[in-house]
Batch of 3 targets.
Target 1
Amino acid sequence: MSGPVAGAPRAARELSVVVPTCGRPAVLRATLVALLRHRAELRDAEVVVVVDGGDEPSVSVVRELAAGAPCPLVAVTQPRSGQGIARNEGIRRAAGRVVLMLDDDIVAGPTLVAEHLRQHAGRSDLVVTGALPMPELHDEPAHYRLIRTWWDEVHRELASPAHVPTFRDFVTGNVSVPRAALLEAGLFDPMFTGYGREDYELGYRLLRAGLRFVHAPAAAGLHHYTKNVLDWLRQARPQGRADVLFARKHPELLGEVMTLSPYPLIPYLPPAVELGERLVVQLNDRGGPTWKKLAATVQAAYYWQGIRDAVQDADELERVVRALLLGRSRTGRLGFRGRLKVARVRATWRRTAWA
């Protein structure tokens, strides 16, 4: 692992902003330009950009913007290792009492930094979650609209006075935590190398450690989501693998993990998935109920293939499937059909056809 491309600051600071990035220099530039406008709030801060994969264009963006930055701005390069490991590297190198984690596609609003600092002032026991609204686009694709409206619902729930914090609040696109608490908790688990759940898993450990979760709507940053529809569909496969790992690490959460993305049991049949993908892409400009059902079916096939990738044996697969079906059961028990599904999946877990 290489060192920083500019001299890392040594003096203790109040805030370190850690931004992982990978191969998106234009997106990174927009994020850093918006962040660096917070000149007064960054006087006792630093910004550490961890370039995952070490692409030179992203490093060049950091070097260029560092010249006029109101605080030290450095880039650290590492071999391609995933966001969790990149954040860990940034946290280890950070000099701030508080670490603010931002994704590289989050354009900070005018009060984002100030609100994180205000919440942490004089405290060492808070996790502060900021808002991540997605801008409404003209002629936005259906998958973008679906994600945007889902985030709107999440933010309404987080801002509700009745909201009870859970590990699901810990979304690393815009969250701040005392650095000492992150180190004591053990940082992000490096076993999570693909998409998803490394943030939830750390959030669970922080909650168990007694930290108080506070949502700060004024700490808002616009989420400029750029993932295309095929990447959005296919991310369900690493998400399935991550759910198995999450539940394996914390067996007491198995039922809750399997209700995070309650995809129906659908086998991964390559010709069917390829056809479904083509239809979803063709209909993505207009959406609608048929598009939504097709997209959910393709995602479910990928998700359960990810589950199958990760389970160690038929016993673990049975536990996962049983937890899913129990989570969807109105009675809290498996009926005959549920038991039959579990038996079929167990009997054919090495093969494709589950139904």
Target 2
Amino acid sequence: MKGEHNNNKMERITERFETERRSCGVSTVDTPILKSYQIFHNYLRPHEGLNDRTPAEACGIQIQGENKWVTLIQNASRMKSQSDL
């Protein structure tokens, strides 16, 4: 636990992921639930260690709007339709 090198953060992420995976009944890694959780974790869920900011906010990425899920989906939809042109 102490020292310059440890894997505490990775262990915490893995533990959290496994807890979520079991509670959702996910048995394979090929599922949209995992990608959704990754998006939730990085763009929507505030982290105490980041002063109640999301990792995206800590990197300077701001998501505007009353409902951040809807904003993310709308932006992804716009990007998809532009790439189809």
Target 3
Amino acid sequence: MLIDENNTFLSQRTIPKMALLQTAIKDDQLLVFEKNSSDDKLVLPLSPDPFSKNVYVKVWEDECEAQLVSKEADSWFSKKLNCSCRLVYMPQSTKRKVDTKYAVDNEITSFSDAFPLLVIGQSSLDDLNSRLTEPLPINRFRPNVVFTGGTPFQEDVMEHFRINNLDFYCVKPSARCVITTTDQETGLAGKEPLKTLSTYRSKNNKVYFGQNVLMKGEGRIKFGDKIEVISETEVSFLSS
């Protein structure tokens, strides 16, 4: 995660150019580079030096302990984003819990906004794109799991689903922010899809698209796996 001089997290909300930074894992190294400029790579170990300095960082209302990665990383990111920032790593000793109102079993998350996973149905994106002048790719919403089949916004009513014997639980609709208006290929912002979504996916002055998800167990899922819906709610949150 990148932090500012006050140790508060940074995101595309305030720095859209972050969309242009890409990552890849090669052997035991993390590679970071800017789109269309892949020759200028930042090469990092997957875990920083265990003796790196620890600092307390802020993610929304949460404060948790993190490790500084390196001055080299700080300099590289500061140059790319034209602002002073530092790169931090979450050590195994840090346990950032999800909101207890939605937790199933005291689950934790990393530096994500609030939950470890987000699920969206392809049919939901297809429905949105049918209303837009120019269709948008799914990366505008940055989901971890995308499923095909089903009806538009079926994830709204999904409670429990299973992939490869791993159990997943939809616990909270995802309220969407301005990052969805940033083109992930150019870093430029517009008005869509929030403008259109607000006409039919809005409740209490928030726009919703996708479901935040918790999971139980450990395992691996991959492209093409079957998703099995175990249980659903009777009424969508938008009509409740």
